[in-house]
Amino acid sequence: MNEVLEILTDLRPDVDFKEEKALVSDGILDSIDIISLVQELDDEFDITIKPADLVPENFNSLEAISKLVERLMED
Amino acid sequence: MDTSVLMMLDRASKNHFDKVAYRNGEESLTFGELRKLTKAVGSWIARKLPPESPVSVLAGRSVITPVCYMGAVQAGCFYAPMDSAMPIARLNQILKVINSEIMLVSKDNLELANSLEYKGKIVAVEDILDTEADEALLASAVNNLTEYSPLYAIFTSGSSGVPKGVITSHHSLLCYLDGLNEVLGLTEEDILANQSPLDYIAAVRDIYLPLMTFAETVIVPKNEFAMGAQLFETLNKYKVSTICWSAAGMEVPAKLGAFEEVVPEYLNKIVFSGSVFPGKYLKIWQENLPKARFINQYGPTEATASCTYYEVKEKVTEETVLSIGKPYKHYGILLLDEENNAVPEGKEGEICVKGPCLALGYYGDAERTEKSFIQNPLNKNYRELIYKTGDLGRIEADGNLTFIGRKDRQIKHMGHRVELAELELTALALEGVEECCVLYHADKKHLYMFVAGRAESKDIVLHFRKVMPPFMVPRKVIKLEEMPKLPNGKTDMQKLKIYFK
Q1: Cβ contacts (< 8 Å) between A36 and chain B: which residues?
Q2: What span, in angstroms and rounded, lies between the C-alpha atoms of B317 and B250?
Q3: How high is the ipTM of this complex?
Q4: What is this structure's pTM?
């Protein structure tokens, strides 16, 4: 989770990722952020985030993103 | 012949009173309602402002936004739109340039509007929708207007650090729509999906094509663009047939692999513009939508949306460099060299535009207007203005135009124009920033800012988040002990590129 937080904070230092729970639904992360984020998570954790994983529920919070990463690392 | 967008609105309302013009989730507005509501808003404004005055509009992605725009127009005024997602500092800059006496806002933006540095009157549009239409007053408001009267002033990045308001006439917009629809051939059966913020030039297609063709525009929530497949599901839900999007916006679902999940099955006309669409992403669209038409557009805000187009009929590959084609009807193109001589076919020159599509200039800035909108140097016999785009191009043997790049340091990022100098000036205004240089990594589509000074990278990014629209915030801020220099003392930009990784 700390590594994910680091990537997120590097991407968007203006966002409080410990508090925000609707990163996608509220439009805090835009499409360009998501593209960068997916690339960096894929590279950093050696996973492949698939188009089917791209739903707001997987990206709305730090916890959700960390959970997605954990799940994909187990696969 | 139409001389005002209101004539299109009247016709649409007469022929298709109950047909939906704009839709946004559960909300929708018919042509009949649109006409009625804009007359109410117009009557309220016309009692307070003389014709041809600016009306600021602060609103978001909603069907009420076009009501604000055309409400101002009903009063013989023109609108200066601002998206509520813009940072406060940016909004204040725009308000200062336009210096309007009235700001129309959607109710949910009232608090934001009240927090701005604005001396004029702020009114929530929802509060004046039941104003009784004063037909005599509205008629007198537009009585002395012509098709050259202004319709809108749309703001774009300025290299001096202040946004420029491009002011455009009804006639220019009508010419563009006529040229575009000659190619597109939209009918009342068509459904458009809006991507662009409604205050941006690209949105004129989504706002006004329905009035001209009786088609419908669906305003897609911004957050859906971040999740590829969800976006395509929305397009299918509303049976969207046509999109006029930025090339940057079309890259996103291709990059996110959205086609692997859903294919937008009703989509058959795809128009894109704003930047060069890389072959590798257009190829994905083409392969998934083999029956759709793909049209590449080129043009600056100053020549009203787009001035040339190219219908992509060939199979695109990763190596394809798309042509920007030939001028739309009502538009003319000429290429000039540094000494303002005509450039022969096959040679590089600055792309210049002529015709009734040229904007009226930059609002309140005669000096810049005169520098960019000049007498055609090839015409010594009568007055003929051209707009110098600052873009470099080449006319090929088949008469099609190829876009080569910029003469200056303006770039296109996420479909928007960005003057790198504006970003540098903004950073240099900060305490602790001694030197600054901004470069664009075109492949990664990242803005890199290099700074020398005490300021922390994080603080610089946070400042930009506060004062600039999101597409103008640098993705990487790299601190250097000192800037690499060329022998002439200027920053060595090539050396800085080693940090692109």
Answers
A1: 446, 475
A2: 16
A3: 0.80
A4: 0.91
